[in-house]
Write a structure and sequence with these properties.
This protein is an alpha/beta fold. Helix content is 46%, strand content 11%. Bound molecules: coproporphyrinogen III.
Length: 372
């Protein structure tokens, strides 16, 4: 029976010997729940078909989300457990993804450290102020759990609604990516300030990333306690770190966070654009590596150890620019490339764009679900 292949939380406390699991064969009897399928894929265990979820699956492409945004601001939704739970569940009701992802934002961590943010009218994010060197000492890490308590209230509501059917993902931004937002003062065209600080004052850069590592660890521990099945670390600005310094800028802090979490749940690391840094990404201890659409999955599969799963990597712009039929073809191409690999989670190479066509998302999901 399949369910016995899904690790219990108590088993996960110790990192499982995944190499032994690779030799297990799946029995044809029994049906996997979406949650079991997702967790099996995280551990490179047999599945009936690859699980599927999409980064930014909750949000502006959904009319039901836009309707709620007429009444509430983004931050009101994020900070009100019932609303955050509702928005998390919207894409599950519509598309029955294998995993739900908590509706929140990576910038709630800087906010809880004392640097708030808002949306710019013309798009993008603006932090209340650009973090300066002299502000770093003042960032407060000890109130993280209290200030982000709304997340520990939202997660049990989501879990209750999902039951055992759908996996629940928690997440946080990587220290490097958060440092970029904090030092640039929001979304930016160029990302130079964090690297400049690294070159000019290594000690100060390290002390900022150290604080962020601590804050992110506390935040993720809290999400694990509240019942998430897995977590994703978004290193969305990984590609802005020069490859020669990737480990010092981003990799080592992610490694530290994963070590701090002690294998309680599987960890997905998505380092967008860091496609020259596979060795450093492997060394983080991630169970799954998320990849953008500039990578050929078959090449990457050969490059990674067999017990690291892969997540990705359909070009997200197709959801806006291609027809549902073209989406089905592109989706099948990826599925065929990864045929025979248990450790594969279907996803986009980045988030769902607000302009995504709903019929295209439907076509993507149906293609994965019907894949044999
Ligand atoms: O994936 C999901 O559905 C869960 C929710 C989620 C959001 N943000 C909701 C959101 C997740 C996982 C994130 C992560 C996040 N936030 C990242 C990493 C992922 C990535 O895209 O690289 C980053 C870099 C952020 C920071 C952030 N938040 C930006 C740059 C923006 C966009 C600003 C804009 O106007 O385009 C946001 C806002 C945001 N986060 C929205 C949503 C649904 C849009 C809010 C709205 O306008 O209603």
């Amino acid at each position: 029976m399949y369910p016995t292949t899904v690790p219990l939380r108590s088993e996960l406390k110790r990192k499982p010997d995944k190499s032994a699991d690779l030799n297990r064969t799946s029995s044809a009897s029994g049906t996997l729940t979406n949650r079991e399928r997702f967790l099996n894929a995280c551990f490179c265990r047999p599945v009936d078909r690859p699980p599927v979820w999409l980064m930014r699956q909750a949000g502006r492409c959904l009319p039901e989300y836009r309707a709620l945004r007429e009444k509430f601001s983004f931050l009101e939704i994020v900070q009100t457990p019932e609303l955050a739970a509702e928005v998390t569940l919207q894409p599950i009701r519509r598309f029955d993804f294998d995993a739900a992802i908590l509706f929140s934002d990576i910038l709630v961590v800087p906010e809880a450290l004392g640097q708030g943010y808002r949306f710019r009218d013309g798009g993008g994010i603006e932090m209340e102020f650009g973090l300066r060197a002299q502000d770093i000492d003042r960032l407060e890490t000890n109130a993280i759990a209290e200030r982000l308590d709304y997340v520990s209230k939202a997660l049990p509501l989501i879990k209750d609604a999902l039951g055992d059917r759908t996996a629940l993902l928690g997440f946080a931004g990587s220290p490097w990516t958060l440092a970029n937002f904090m030092l640039e003062g929001g979304s930016a065209k160029q990302h130079t300030k964090a690297y400049e600080l690294f070159l000019a004052d290594r000690q100060l850069f390290d002390s900022l990333c150290h604080k962020l590592t601590e804050a992110v660890t506390t935040f993720l521990e809290m999400q694990i306690k509240a019942g998430v099945d897995a977590i994703q670390i978004f290193d969305s600005h990984g590609g802005f770190a020069p490859a020669k310094d990737f480990d010092a800028l981003s990799g080592r802090w992610i490694t530290q966070i994963i070590e701090n979490l002690r294998g309680q749940v599987p960890v997905i690391v998505f380092s967008k654009g860091a496609n020259l840094s596979w060795n450093e990404l492997i060394a983080t201890g991630a169970d799954v590596l998320g990849v953008d659409w500039n990578v050929r999955l078959t090449d990457l599969r050969k490059r990674l150890p067999r017990d690291i799963a892969i997540q990705g990597n359909l070009d997200p712009s197709l959801l806006t620019n291609a027809t549902p039929e073209e989406i089905a073809v592109a989706t099948k191409r990826l599925l065929n490339e990864m045929r025979g690999n248990n450790g594969y989670i279907f996803n986009l190479g980045h988030g769902v764009p607000p302009t995504a066509r709903l019929d295209s998302i439907e076509s993507l999901v149906a293609t994965v679900r019907n894949f044999k």
